[in-house]
Amino acid sequence: MIGVGGPRRVREGLGEELASVQAHAARNAVLLVFGVNGLAVASWTSRIPDVKRALNLSAGQLSLLLLALSVGSLCGLPVAGRIARALGTRAAIRLAVAVSLPGLLLVASAISFHAPMPLVAIGLFVTGLGMGVWDVAQNIEGTVVERDIGQSIMPWFHAAFSAGTVVAALIGAALTLFKVPIAVHLGAVALAAAIVVWSGTGRFLPARDATAQPADAPAAAAGPSAVQRSAWTEPRTLFIGVMVLAAAFTEGTANDWMAVAFVEGHGLSAALGVVALAVFLVFMTCGRIFGTRLLDRYGRVGVLRVMFGAAVFGCLLVVFGPEWLAFVGAAIWGVGASLGFPVGISAAGDDPQRASFRISVVSTIGYGAFLAGPPLLGFLGDHFGVLHAMLAVGAICVLAMLVAPVAKPPASTTLSRG
After folding, report:
1. Pick from 135, 142, 299, 312: CA 20 to 30 A from residue 99's CA?
2. Which residue ranges does UniProt annotate as crossing the membrane (predicted)?
3. Which residue range(s) make up the domain with 73?
4. What is the DSSP track for 205-251?
5. How far apart, in whole angstroms, are the C-alpha atoms of residue 418 and residue 293?
6. 177 and 326: one domain?
């Protein structure tokens, strides 16, 4: 016989079970959206050599063309938080897709018809603009799901992005080998990505985003002053941004220069240079997949310090070690670079009421490294050689280790130990 409180307990149990099912479905949906984002970005980058040949560009002209994509992203990132807050993460991502993927189609069409380079640049700017909003919105939804599940799973989402880039690179290599036109390739990617993202975002947590006020939060927390205060004036947010910038520089430098450093610095073949980059990417992805348990067990600050320290050690092995040890260094560097960016995003999203603004600020600061990093390494490489220029990564990782305590969750957050 069920007691007086029995039906209520049964209803509460069913409600918790339903919430858990929804949270895990949303987790899978966010993994999918991150993966498609990586696939779309890397589909473009995989055809850059073909673009250079098709438009007959010099290295300098190509760098200016690629700058249009970065500038578009940096324009989208600062406003993405407000868009996500106003529309919700689901609608924000769908809007971003509706901007970025047509931009990609414009790029592909302009290249195929040998249109003037400014038209290609406009298409890349529009693509970057949408990608910036997409990136922030998916990270906001990731922090919501992470809080609901109660585990430090943000690195999984970034691992999905990395996996998407690897798949896109392999597909791009095959299509290039068989001389598939750029317009056909990017057009198919844009169409498939739009369908998958529209379906995936439908499984996001219902009527929820990172701006939602928790039911047990004090009313004062949602006051107008809390919402209107600029996240750009918050010291903790800015220091998290510095840490994320260091993490982005550590990752981006390897992506752009690892293969070149092994070829020019260690005298290896171009193929072995690519192998070194692949080693870095594989171990970075593994670090993001398996590092979540370390975060839940030991807390953010301690794990981040160890990871950034590993990146320093790996960098030193790459620069000063013999050839075989340099490959080991690339693996250690990859693991060390794996958690800084996603954990920084989690830290920015600790407070649901302010998450959209803070993640937008932190993303803007962090992505600045992807814009400034390649030219900085190129300048240092001209003076000291590309291999020794990689030591800049070690220096910025030391800075990240010093500011890592800002990632500790506030006292009211129970996601991880700190």
Report:
1. 142
2. 29-46, 58-80, 92-113, 119-137, 157-176, 182-200, 238-262, 268-290, 302-320, 326-347, 359-380, 386-407
3. 19-204
4. PTT--TTPPPTTS-GGGGSHHHHHS-GGG-HHHHHHHHHHHHHHHHH
5. 13
6. no
Residue 379, token pair as written in the block: 């300048």
Distance of CA 221 to the CA centre of its chain: 29
Tokens of 72: 């578009």
Domains contained in the chain, number:
2
Structural tokens at position 385: 């050689």
Residue with tokens 């000291």: 384
Would you state the pLDDT for residue 59? 63
Chain centroid to CA 274: 22
Helix (H) or strand (E) holding 273: helix 270-298
Distance CA 161, CA 135 (A): 10
Q: At what angle do helices 59-87 and 355-384 cross, to 10 degrees?
A: 170
- The long-range contacts involving 315-319, CB below 8 angstroms and separated by at least 24 positions, are 315/390, 315/391, 315/393, 315/394, 315/397, 316/391, 316/394, 318/258, 318/261, 318/387, 318/390, 319/265, 319/387, 319/388, 319/390, 319/391
Tens of pLDDT, residues 86-139: 999 999 999 999 999 999 999 999 988 888 889 999 999 999 999 999 999 999
**Residue 374 binned pLDDT confidence (cut-offs 50, 70, 90):** low
Query: Do 327 and 194 belong to one domain?
Result: no
Structure token pair of residue 65? 């063309």
pTM of the model: 0.81
CB 366 within 8 A of CB 196: no
Question: What is the Cα gyration radius of the chain?
Answer: 22
Kindly report which listed range (158-172, 297-311, 401-415) carries the lowest average pLDDT score.
Answer: 401-415
DSSP classification of residue 339: S
Domain's final residue, options 156, 186, 204 = 204
The confidence score (pLDDT) of residue 17 equals 65
